Amino acid sequence: EDKVVQSPLSLVVHEGDTVTLNCSYEVTNFRSLLWYKQEKKAPTFLFMLTSSGIEKKSGRLSSILDKKELFSILNITATQTGDSAIYLCAPNRAGTALIFGKGTTLSVSS
Amino acid sequence: KAGVTQTPRYLIKTRGQQVTLSCSPISGHRSVSWYQQTPGQGLQFLFEYFSETQRNKGNFPGRFSGRQFSNSRSEMNVSTLELGDSALYLCASSLGTGFYGYTFGSGTRLTVV
What we know:
The complex is a heterodimer.
Chain A: E1 3-7, E2 10-14, E3 19-26, E4 30-38, E5 44-49, E6 56-58, E7 61-66, E8 71-76, E9 85-93, E10 104-109
Parallel strand pairs in A: 2-10
Antiparallel strand pairs in A: 1-3, 3-8, 4-5, 4-9, 6-7, 7-8, 9-10
Chain B: E1 5-7, E2 10-13, E3 19-24, E4 31-38, E5 42-50, E6 53-57, E7 64-68, E8 74-78, E9 87-94, E10 103-104, E11 108-112
Parallel strand pairs in B: 2-11
Antiparallel strand pairs in B: 1-3, 3-8, 4-5, 4-9, 5-6, 7-8, 9-10, 9-11
């Protein structure tokens, strides 16, 4: 059975801290891995990772995939209160829908 | 272009009733997936439709059903509602699977009393 495990499940940090969120997966027909940020309702797309070892960056966020060890990390540097959200990872498999981990709830205090 | 539209945004129903939720995908997207989100459980996959055919189904009871129309709009139906069905129901649309991103709607918040 395909599974996705995210850790930690929740995290509380102060503004300015750097955080690392983890996502490990065991799935069949893996093609890519997606990261989403969910603040209120709709998860919003952050990254799609398809190749191992190639870091993707967007501002203070970055992410990397290791297809050999079956995990991905999402880094957020110099956190701000606006980064408070649930962060979701989802392996993208051929021929079937996304499955998600339980997410990491990040709370950034000022 | 317009995003994924889900209606209604909020719904309150009584145990035993049934409910129908609607999802209009991004124009050109033929894949629509449905998810149930409850605190502590994350997003759990309900089913996925592609070109009016259900391609995959999650581990939910038969009370949960869905369909997709020729214009790619999708509906999901929950019959004989239970208190545990209270959740945020999200749909996502995509061009396909594997190397395509998914865009989510804002969801329907269902409360069963």
